[in-house]
Hints:
The structure holds 2 protein chains of 2 kinds. By secondary structure, chain A is mostly helical. Chain A has helices at 2-9, 11-49, 54-69, 72-87, 93-119, 122-130, 135-166, 177-185, 194-223. In chain A, helix 2 runs antiparallel to helix 8 (177-185), helix 3 crosses helix 5 (93-119) and helix 7 runs antiparallel to helix 9. Chain A is flat. Chain B has helices at residues 7-10, 13-47, 54-68, 72-87, 93-119, 122-130, 135-163, 177-188, 191-220. Chain B is mostly helical. Chain B is 78% helix and 0% strand.
Amino acid sequence: MTELIQLLLGEFHAKMLLVLLSATQWTIYLSLTAFIGGGLIGLIFTVLKISPIGWLRRLATAYIWLFQSIPLLMLLFLTGLGIPAFFKIDVPAWLAATVSLTLFTSAYMSEVWRGALESVPKGQWEGGRALGLGFNWILYSIVAPQALRISTPPTVGFMVQVIKGTSMAYIIDYNDLMRWGKKIANSQLDGAEPYIVYPVVALIYFGLCFPLSQWSKSLEKTMSPK
Amino acid sequence: MFDFRFYEIWRESDFIDRLINGVWISVELSTAGGVFGLIMGLALAAAQSSVSPSVLRYASISYIEGIRNTPFIVQLFFVTFGLPLIFNYRWPFEASALLAIVLNFSAYFAEVLRAGIESVHRGQIEAAQSLCLTRRQTFFDIVLPQAFANVWPSLTSQFVFLFLTTGLISEIGVEDLTWSGRYIADRNFRDFEVFIVLTLLYVLIVFGYKAIFSLVQRYAFRWRVAR
């Protein structure tokens, strides 16, 4: 495989591509962690947001509002530069990036899921209550399965936002695809001009994102309740 | 343990000036980017209508998918450092940043506007045709106002979401709000306080933008109530 790439692109560009591809793994790890972690936290706040207890609902509203309002860039600066400077502690870049993207993802995901839960007709809740079921049971066995159909396409679509968001983590020196792309583009080597490197980096990101957005679109067609 | 020193930010008038200037640059570039992006997005959305030639349609779709599936920062660096080498020109960084913002915003707006155009009822177009309106009149006077009215809320949230990513232009040396924050933090070493203030300023700007969008909604789409 490596030889084939070398044969096609020449030694220098083959090396460049391999470096970029191996840096892509860190982009993928960060995206997956943020998506899974953000999904779990998002799930908790989604449930809180529709819970019958008032102060829990307000807590969830505040959380979602807060982390949707803070720009991702500021979250990265706060966790990666602000907290280390303020508490005089050492925060590794990967940790700051993971925390930032997880918070960012969780806020947007719970917004999507709350919307899906609320789009399930009120009669479904009332029907469940008429059968003597409690809040948790109605949510779990009646409402959530219906909401799942509505929320799957935007959830998959949001993965694209997460992947694109990870590209910002290079500003706090997280060693992902973007950071290596920038390093190579700044290297002044022949054949590593910005107009070659950045399109390659863009193509790799496109290769990660495009299948997901197409998947999201096809899910939208097949899963739309009609 | 909690030793907040916000006064380290407003003690120096230089820092305050930088922040004010940063707010201005951020608002200026994102507003200009929003306006031009909307115009370009409209062209992209119109190019996708069923009457336009298929070459144009595919070009528009590829452009939109290309932009929407790659990060803004890569587009920004390509526009700032790549394009000038290819076409051999020199622009100030603000101009490159604006170009990147317009190119980026337009693809997202195009997607929203396309949904808006598709949401206009077919009967509206037929009625316009039966009144002998030209295609241009039908599009600009009948379809477009309704499309805008239908998707105005999505357009608002899309713009706000995009605005929150424009801080990245500080990476190429544009002296926007994020740049000002880093300038100050590099000098007073109060990163945490500086970025808290910066976040508050961003939130305030978002409130301002949302207020403007809802004002437009209230006055520009008044005719809608008549239905």
